[in-house]
């Protein structure tokens, strides 16, 4: 009899690790399984709702970040256009400076009589 009892407890240990609940010779009420299934379904539903909430927050955050990205992109394009305009103005100013410097150097190298002659040739507007 002791051998059968030992065998029973050995089987009980093996099945406890591999089978959910207890073996048939150590019966558990049907309510236990129903409660366990209900709690697992409830936890599944809660996890599903939490996942949906996280996905909704993710979508909102994604839309917000896309809006910021688009705004920064527009700002970048405006700054790029402004930079291009400023570069062209700088080039124009450099050309004008070069032109004025060449005229100034020309006037510096002119003699007195040439300057006087130039002065009377320029019409006053």
Instruction: Give the number of DSSP strands.
Output: 0
End-to-end separation in angstroms reads: 133 Å
Largest sheet: none
* Low-pLDDT windows of residues: none
Give the number of helices: 3
Helix content: over 70%
Keywords: Coiled coil
Coiled coil: 48-96
Describe the structure.
It contains three helices and no strands. With 125 residues, it is mostly helical. It is rod-shaped and about 140 Å long.
Task: Provide the descriptors you would attach to this structure in a database record.
single chain, 125 residues, mainly alpha, 86% helix, 0% strand
Quick structural gist:
The chain has helices at 2-18, 30-109, 112-121. The chain has 125 residues and is mostly helical. It has one domain (2-101).
Topology, element by element:
Blueprint: H1 2-18, H2 30-109, H3 112-121
Keywords: Coiled coil
Coiled coil: 48-96
């Amino acid at each position: 009899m002791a051998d059968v009892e030992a065998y029973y407890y050995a089987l009980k240990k093996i099945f406890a690790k591999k089978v959910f609940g207890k073996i048939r010779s150590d019966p558990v009420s049907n309510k236990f399984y129903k409660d366990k299934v209900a709690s697992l379904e409830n936890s599944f539903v809660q996890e599903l709702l939490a996942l949906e909430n996280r996905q909704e927050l993710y979508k909102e955050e994604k839309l917000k970040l896309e809006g910021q990205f688009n705004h920064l992109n527009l700002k970048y394009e405006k700054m790029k256009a402004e930079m291009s305009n400023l570069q062209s103005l700088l080039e124009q100013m450099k050309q004008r400076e070069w032109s004025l410097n060449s005229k100034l150097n020309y006037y510096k190298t002119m003699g007195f009589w040439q300057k006087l002659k130039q002065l009377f040739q320029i019409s006053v507007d």
